Amino acid sequence: MHNYRPAPVLEALGVCSEDEQLYRALLARPEATTTELVADTGWATARVARHLRSLLSLGLASRTPGRPARYTPAVPEAAVELLALRKQAAIVQARLGAAALTSEFRARGDAGPFTVIRGQQAMAQRFYQAQQSAQTEVLVLDKPPFVVLPIEPRRAHGVSYRTVYDMSALVEPAEIAAARSAGPSCRMLRDVPLKLVVADQRIGLMQTGHELIEIGPSTLLDALLRLFELLWQQATPLSPSASDGPLTFEDQQLLALAAAGLTDQAIARRLGVAQRTVERRMQRILKALDATTRFQAGLRAGQRGLLT
């Protein structure tokens, strides 16, 4: 079995590839002992034990009484639902954290390492300057409404971009094309809590309505960086190779609209087709992805880079 490496499907839910590999081994051999799992995976005993502890903490496995200890895998459908609920809980905590950060800023007013910039032209210029000054990395949280039009990433040598889009920003063809062209550096998430650009972890630009708050090195900027990393881990990767998958571009767009929370009727209006056509296409998508629910289809499509 250790020569077989199926593509991971649970990374978007916080399960590392090795944890998932051991979970698959347990699915193939329920009530396996550590010794049996060592033989099945070809891993060292300590490595198997470490990932077994991880599976137990994630709720993907349970230990049966008696000796030798045997491990039973959780039913996949129930396990995925549990992981999804935990992910949603983490997102809720992140949103609460964003609210707390905003309250902290307002309580301090203009004191400290903060500057308030007003006016669309001034805001756009500051976004541009921050990106131009970046030497290593630019982090972006983006969601509508767009007071300032998105600026094309500076493709300079040595400057990397990581962007988390709100799903609602990816329902128009232009935004979809831009996200796909960004490749693995772009991810998407439902309900991104704020709009943020951070250059080299030293300059943060947080947009609130028609104002731009510039934040220098501070505990607030540190907290925003931690918030970004949490959201990045929770977000679903996008891939420019999505068109190579089993779905047509129209299918991918339909699935993205469904993921953004639109009903079949709203999707039909946006795409200019009959609601029955949307329902028929959705059934084809479920079949193509070997999924029984839209949630399962969205998860699998996201892991394959098809959820654009």
TrEMBL record:
List the InterPro entries hit by this protein, alphabetically.
Sig_transdc_resp-reg_C-effctor, TrmB-like, Tscrpt_reg_LuxR_C, Tscrpt_reg_TrmB_N, WH-like_DNA-bd_sf, WH_DNA-bd_sf
- Record domain HTH luxR-type: where: 240-305
Q: What is this protein called?
A: HTH luxR-type domain-containing protein
Superkingdom in the source lineage: Bacteria
Name the source organism: Kribbella koreensis
Q: Which Pfam families match?
A: GerE, TrmB
